[in-house]
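Human: If only I could read backbone structure tokens as easily as an amino acid sequence. Take your time, and here it is.
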Amino acid sequence: MALAGKKEEDSLMSSYFNDKTTIIQEARVFNDSPISPRKCRALLTRVVYLLYVGETFGTQEATTLFFGTTKLFQHKDSALRQMVYLAIKELATTAEDVIMVTSSIMKDMQPNSEVIYRPNAIRALCRIIDPSMAQGVERFFKAAIVDKTPSISSAALVSSYHLFPAAKDVVKRWVNEAQEAINPKSSGSLFGSSTGGGYLGGWGSSPTPANSGYQPVTSTSHITQYHAVGLLYLIRQQDRMAVTKMIQQMGGGRSSSGATLKNPMALCMLIRYAAKIMEDDPNSQRPMLELLEGWLRHKSDMVNLEAARVICDMKGVTPAQLSKPVAVLQLFLSSPRGTLKFAAARTLASLAVSHPNVVIPCNPDLEALITDSNRSIATYAITTLLKTGNEASVDRLMKQITGFMNEISDEFKVIIVDAIRSLCLKFPAKHASMLAFLSGVLRDEGGYDYKRAVVEAIFDMIKFIGECKEQALSHLCEFIEDCEFTKLSVRILHLLGLEGPKSPQPAKYIRYIYNRVVLENATVRAAAVAAMAKFGVNVPDASMKKSIGVLLNRCLDDVDDEVRDRAALYLKTLDEEPLAQAYVKDESTFSLAALESKLVAYVNNNSAADEPLDLSDIPKISREQAAKESARPSALETVAVAGPSQAATGPPPPTAAEAQSQYAQQLAEVPEFADYGPVLSSTKSTPLTESETEYQVSCVKHIFKEHIVFQCNISNTITDTVLENVAVILQPSEDSGLTEDFVIPLPSLTAATSPGLVYVSFTRDSPEQYAMASFAAALKFVSKELDPSTGEPEEEGYEDEYQLEELELAAADYIVPSYSTFTTDWEQLADAASATETFSLSAMDSIQAACDSIIEILNMEPLGGTQSPANPTVHTLQLSGLVAGGGGKVLVRCRMTFAKGQGVTLELGVRAEKQQACELVVSAIGG
């Protein structure tokens, strides 16, 4: 008889385990008399397998299986009893009336029950009981946590961890028991019979009776400590001081080996908690760093590596602080154990990005790992060398990389390509060898992520190394001839449309682009049409435009409507320059966050239903800025640090448009502002106190059509004090043109709830005028002490007033930076409102200082890199912006000359859609 192959065996196994209907029918074996332990175990195994692979049972099916399983509670077979506990634990989330088996489970939790059943009973009870029943089983859990048998103690601790979200107040009372579980002691362990702690272990073995004279062996793993540390941190995580104290006590203070914890995993958890404390509270960095440096000398390699990794990822770490962890990692590079070498090489590769000089002493050891049989280790070694090596070593390293690229996975190929990508920018003189390598691997087999990494590296070379642009574009043209990834083809065609017309011989790229129209899918064909149109518009050669017109005419018969529509549009742009300027040459686009905010406000404003959407107030950004924003994770969606790579940097700061959208959403939720209309602009946050003060206040100004709202963000840093009836008093200067409406105070503010928001609203007496004023500011509140025992504020308090810095409402608060094509837009506004003034800026010691000052005063977008003067004596600064409240577009041309001893002479030219906007800009500089 022929033996079944592996695939046939897998198929048989799958059909055996995946037939849910058969399993439910076979559940009759639970009612047999006598019960067959072997059949019942096999059936329960199939049930658990189905749940594990994602199969779901209906409520009725799960209830039938659940109560059929509970009939096996009285059987004496230990392996069957363990399987019963595992099955009811998994079915409990779906079945009904599961609380009915609580008494049977609690019977196995009694101290006089057999040791082999108690851990399983504890884990099952945690899933079955209602949160309101947690107090009733408290004494059982407390007794189990301090039990001398590690499997029982660990089961209770882990179950408490899972029970905590539903019964916080009850579990918090178990702190003393969890602390006692951490203390090292000789404890029983079922090493001879592993069924006490495992889910599936020990099938077929007989139970160990409580009175059989069983003598537990001494446990040396201290695994209970690992679970107890996790539970203690879960209970105390909201109290930073308590967590800090716990780390210092368990870490042993200045002791290098730790005074209490013996389990390496528990110590690793403690190290991660220390890293979290350092990230949240920079003042605790020094004592935590002393503990981490002590753990670098621990006898466990796991602890050494975790401590070294945390120090390397620490914010603001200095080369002196990195010397000890790097020395430890260097020792591991020569370890005979592959896991240690891999972990050390990976940590050093990450560190080399920010501190390459610190890693240089490890280079001899890393070079020895290039030939390591484990190609993952060799990959990290060679990428680290690429980041830390000098220009002379580039060629040698490139040859060594080429030798094993086909032997590693795509994941590690991406790591190598990313390292070469940064090396290209570090040593541009070596671009020839690196471009040859990238073009070679581009022709190799690989997945999308790998090919995208290579293409992105070539894109960067084109952008930052002008000498290789022609050759790099040629390699990309060859790649799209046989590219299987639509996204990459579209991106390359877009790049060809941008860079191809600027090359000395633009005609040579047309063949590659038109081939895509003939051979590719509709998405790529549409991108190819757009790329060809850019050649026709941007290349001054008339014959080129005529040829492009012929090719686009052929695309009018395409089967896809997107391709046909694009071809028709671009044919029109070839003949009409205004259309070409608007749809092809224009390098600006709407900021998506600002556009979204405007659309939401328009949809929510019922009174504007019959009015067209006004896009004139939406700021524009360059296409390069738009690409950067789309590539970066949105701060609106980032609610926490995503992982270790972001732990050191935190979430990205929001862009100006994203902040504007956030503010608009916040203001829409305040009923007092419901009839104010959409917010026209929001300024950057202005601090009104020093960063070290006990009360920290900053202000954001929101401009509406007829109102100005000051949003004051207030933080209370005093932990034992609560502030009530918190308000900000703003007193404007005379003749400000503003009338105060109301103040929305903050009812209560503690250190835990900081920051809080206070709003102060003013009406603009003349909405057509841009009011400018200075405000005297003060913070008023009622201060109350917190009762340390109850955490509640005392009844008696006292009124207090805290003086804030003066607040200014200036011209820049009405202006929103907006990108534009300066030369074109300046000519278009030639017949609009304009103003020209000359100023002497004698206090400026350079043109660069004058540029920085003007940009800050006007809050406008600098164009064409004019914010960085190339000539120290003569310069022209170009600025663009939008004036809130219907002021429209405004452009500023600042012609400056600098003479030593006389400062900067400024000729300010302003063109705008409305005269009030011109006057606003001139007054900002003149004032």
Summary: Confidence is low (pLDDT under 50) at residues 1-16, 185-219, 254-259, 632-651.
